[in-house]
Each structure stands twice: as C-alpha cells, then as structure tokens.
Write a structure and sequence with these properties.
It is a multi-pass membrane protein. Keywords: Membrane, Transmembrane, Transmembrane helix. It is found in: Membrane. The chain has about 180 residues and is mostly helical. It has one domain. It has seven helices and no strands. Helix 1 packs across helix 6 and helix 4 runs antiparallel to helix 5. The longest helix has 29 residues, at about 80-105. The N and C termini lie far apart (about 35 Å). The model has no long low-confidence stretch (mean pLDDT about 90).
Length: about 180
Amino acid sequence: MAYISVAAMVLCGLVLLISAVSKARSGKDYAEFAASIPAFGIPAQWTRLFAAATLAAEVAITALLLCATVLMAADLNTGRWLATAGLGLSVGLFGVLTVAVWRAVARRSGAVCRCFGPAHTVLARRHVVRNALLLLIAVLGVATLSPGTVDPVIAALAAAGGAVGAVFVIRFDDLADLLVG
C-alpha cells in the first residue's frame, strides 16, 4: 500500500508545484491570481493575505512532499514523517480549495480558474470534482502510508503513475473541453 502513497505524493507535489510556479513566475501572473480571489467571496482587504498564504502553502507542501519522496526512496524513516506532514497538509489545502470552488460555483460568482496560470474558464462543477479527487488522492496517500521498505522499481513505477496523473489534473480543462466538446 505504500506505493499508493508514493503515487499520491508525486501527484500532489507536482500539481502544487506547477500551481505555485504558474502564480509566481511573474508579477503580472501573481497580480492576476490575486485579483481573482474576491470572486470566491473573500473580502478585498484580505486578498493580498489569501494570495500570499495560498502560494506559501503550495510551496511548503511541495517541499515537504519532494523531500519525503527522496527520503523514502533512500529508505529513511524521516521520509515517512515528512510524507505524513505533506499529505496531511495537502488534505487540508485541497479541502479548503474544494469548498472555495464549490461556494463560487454555487453562488454563480463567475470566478475563473487560475489554478495553473492564466485562464478564461469560469469555474464549474467539474472543477469541484477535480478538487474533490485531489482531496481523495491526498487522503488515500495518508491512509496508505506504512512503515517498512519499498521496492525501488515498483516505487519508481508508482511515482511515474503519479506524474501521469498530475499531467491529467494540470491539463484538466483541456481534457474536459476535448471530451465534452
């Protein structure tokens, strides 16, 4: 079951890494992200704080998950503690983001998904489902963490599966448009 945790750590870590980089790669990208926050029902005076907290959480969780993956691959128990912390914080962040998106969709606020950079797609139920799946994956990652060694080859395959899953999450809007038309 530890391999599910490996896949979950890689998937969550890559999703959060790309999300953080897409927000922080330029002042314009960060400003557009921050400007999108009031559509989620956050008062304008809290926009800067929420933008900074979101970005900081994404970066911190990414670092925890990256370190945990490397340490677990090196068969060090410290990796399990970091994995528990990283996946646990992922559960919290994805939970908050799922509720925020759900509220924006329910209120028909017209909020735009800037999760992975500039976008023009108005949030819809499919984004709630995407975030809920991320939440479920993080929960599964925590639930399947187990002590003991992992086979490096199987762990690498699990990590590759997590990376493929991350691509699907990151390109979610494109895939949904392709399938729905």
